[in-house]
Amino acid sequence: QGTFLLMEPEPDSEAIAFYTKVHQRKLHDYEGFLNRSECAGFWDVIVLTAIDDAQKTYYEHVLKDKANANEIPRCSEYLVISDPKDDDKVGCGGSTMEVLDVLDKRYGSRLDSMKVLLLHAGGYSKRLPNHSTSGKIFATIPHYLPRASSRSGCCTMLEMKLIMLVDMPRHMAPGVFLACSDDIEFFESDGIRLDDPGFIALAHPGSIKVGMSHGVFVLDPKAKDAPFSMSSLPCVQFLHKPSREVMVGAGALLHPNGKEPSSEAEIFLDSCFYFDRNVEKILLDFYRHHRPLRAEIDAYGDFLQPLGSKAVPSYFTNPKNVGVYTPRVAELRELLFHALQTNQVPLSVVPLIPSLFIHIGTCDEYMAHFCDNFAKFGFPRKVLSTVQADSEHLDPHSCLIHSALTAPSVTVAQGSVIEHCSLNYSDISIGKYCVS
Fold first, then answer.
1. Taking the CB of residue 295, how many other CB atoms lie within 10 A of it?
2. In sequence order, what are the beta bridge partners of 140?
3. How far apart, in Å, are the Cα atoms of 206 and each of 179, 228, 280, 303, 331?
4. What tens digit of pLDDT does each residue of 263-307 get?
5. Which of 227, 296, 387, 421 is in Cβ range 3.0-4.6 Å of 403 for a Cys bridge?
């Protein structure tokens, strides 16, 4: 069982039952932290990144409201850190290094014993513009928190991330666990240990076709011959949005069996990763020597491509995987490559088989998951909404969130998501595949 994207085969009923059971267990464990005053087994600090001070202020207000409503554990400290004001757009890698700088100034040597969750909040969400103000991290997900004291008790992506990753800090050495806010993963993680040196990435099985737009791990050939478990395995190379030919040539296929690879051939895809205190110090030293960066650094491509015994510097001048390419991008990539190589930072992966990776970064994905796919896991299609419209006017494959449909003749067609709307006039019609 691998990725679950728009063009991928759906998981079967047995797999859905497994993922649903795992999620319910994690939800129960998460709710156990909601009324605790101490953080043993949970995150010491949870950091959200913001693109500027205006977004930072908004995030801080939302976090305060959520803590008061008992929707997020109050035993952790929450910080919102905005991108540097005196720099250009720095990418999620530059943002990560800015976070490390702020944390070091705030906590100093106490970081040697702290477990940090770093969530990149998604900036102004250009590919999902209905969340351009809130960022993807506070996008409402059609899922409830049964024990929350608020009237809503409804999840945002923040709570979903905290639920999905609830096991991680329990067996994690001090360091940083980094994740993005535009995907949901279902996987069993009870027993995963994050205590090897360097970087440890979670790896999801997927197809070559999906790998062309994601990161792909190349395992040590010896590791591919053994049965996969939740133990970490050495990774010899990380490929960032590679072509089919590059994946095949690098040995990324898990079970080639001497056959010509097809689009269904399995590879390991990236999602989120951990790095230890030594890596924190290396990245922080790099940042303090080279800021202002004046270029975008990617936390995946530019942190992970320098790692592994087969890492190659051919990506330095690749303009495809960066918003604005300038010679400064290549310069920083080369400097970072040598910093991580010189310090012999290792990369290992934890293969998650089975696992389900659900990307919600575009409008098409958003509509498909909210209107169809999430319902397979018991998520409701109507969330905190009042409906007085005739039921025959509402397509069963639509989704309503924080909305009121009070006129009887309002029509909502298949595949549409209605969020924060009041539709109280007759003859309003929302067509197919709309986000309103």
1. 25
2. 156
3. 19, 15, 30, 22, 32
4. 455 899 999 999 999 999 999 999 999 999 999 999 999 999 999
5. 421
